[in-house]
Amino acid sequence: MGEWIPDILGDGFEQQTLPLGEDSEGELVATVVRSLPEAPRWWHPLIGHRDRRPLADVDVLYVHGWSDYFFNRRLARFWTDRGARFYALDLRKYGRSLRPGQTPGFITDLAEYDADIGAALAARGDATGRRLVLLGHSTGGLTLSLWAARHAGDVAAVVLNAPWLEFQLSAARAAITPVVELQARFWPMDAAPQVDLGFYSRAQREVADPDDPLETNPEWRPEKAMTVHAAWLRAVFAGHDAVSRGLGITAPVCVLLSQRTALPTRWSPELTRADSVLVVDDIAAAAVKLGSSVTVERIDGALHDVFISQKDARDESYARLARWVDGWSAQTA
């Protein structure tokens, strides 16, 4: 077991570095951040302390999206207040795991993240009798969906926050794929044109809540999205193709999405109340192919990350999540 040390998020958060070997760019590590619930207050003279909170036997593993890392304290508190142990994974070459000289976020197969996820789960220590809930945002939602399909017996539930389950030009993906395949084979590091004008970052600043502040590191979560390379895009397309064919996830799935999409071609106040990254109707359609029990929650006024939207949409997102989680827990406890 590695060493838990204080995390940059401050009190209540610790991190552990997870060695993953090396690649052509040097040392590979992932980083897991944990937040543990407070000790139970209920006490009995014969059996001592017993945690009666609904998620006392639950471990949550969160995975971030593209050009991102874990920073949301309130999201962790949502789970720990219910008794769960919360773990967040900064994947290799992202956030806390990014090392000098590495290409941020670059990978050629999303299944390579099995090593990162496996190391994070091992860092929990003894998890006997505990239920595992996967929580993924955007590309992290795609990665965890694929992992859940390959590890059916290990997963009790999957919660996805605007998962990137389909390409934004879904009708053109089949036609684009051969071009991406060829480019990835011969020029894997070729960069796609930058289409992010920084409007999603601006929308987040516009709706920021001074009573619930979120501070991020601009080197780990830049104003404009990180460079997209051909081999990485091929890996994502392969994931989209797998989703389109059906993943067969056996655990219940909850997908939270904005009610609408807004195209980020120019700045508009509409971008503060919509998903400007994904085509949410296409994601909702793809979500039902994840498994046999899928709930889709559409939140009016939400951003791409529903949990950092303006206050009314953010509160509604947490309320919808609470309703689903509490119902799931009551049925499976």
What is the overall silhouette? globular
Strand arrangement, largest sheet?
Answer: 1-2-3-7-6-8-9-10-11
Task: Enumerate how many helices there are, as a single number.
Answer: 8
**Secondary structure tally: strands:** 11
Overall pLDDT score:
94
CATH H-tier superfamily: Alpha/Beta hydrolase fold, catalytic domain
**What structural class do you assign from the helix and strand content?**
alpha/beta
Q: Please compute the radius of gyration using only Cα atoms.
A: 19 Å
Runs with pLDDT <50, length 5+? none
Q: Helical amount among residues, as a percent range? A: 25-40%
Topology as H/E string? EEEEEEHEHEHEHHHEHEH
First-residue to last-residue Cα separation:
29 Å
The percentage of residues in β strands lies in 15-25%
CATH topology: Rossmann fold
Which assembly state applies to the chains in this document?
A: single chain
The second-level CATH architecture is 3-Layer(aba) Sandwich
Integer tally of domains: 1
Q: What is the CATH C-level name?
A: Alpha Beta
In short:
Residues 60-214 form the Serine aminopeptidase S33 domain. By secondary structure, the chain is α/β, with parallel strands linked by helices.
Structural description of this entry:
InterPro entries: AB_hydrolase_fold (IPR029058), AB_hydrolase_sf (IPR050266), Hydrolase_4 (IPR022742). By secondary structure, the protein is of the alpha/beta class. It has one domain: 3-Layer(aba) Sandwich (Rossmann fold). 29% of the residues lie in helices and 19% in strands. The chain is built from eight helices and eleven strands. It has helices at 73-80, 114-122, 139-150, 173-186, 199-206, 230-245, 280-287, 311-332, and strands at residues 5-6, 14-23, 26-35, 43-44, 48-49, 58-63, 85-90, 131-137, 157-161, 253-258, 294-299. Strands 1-2-3-7-6-8-9-10-11 form a nine-stranded mixed sheet, sandwiched between helices. A two-stranded antiparallel ribbon has the order 4-5. α3 crosses α6. The radius of gyration is 19 Å and the shape is globular.
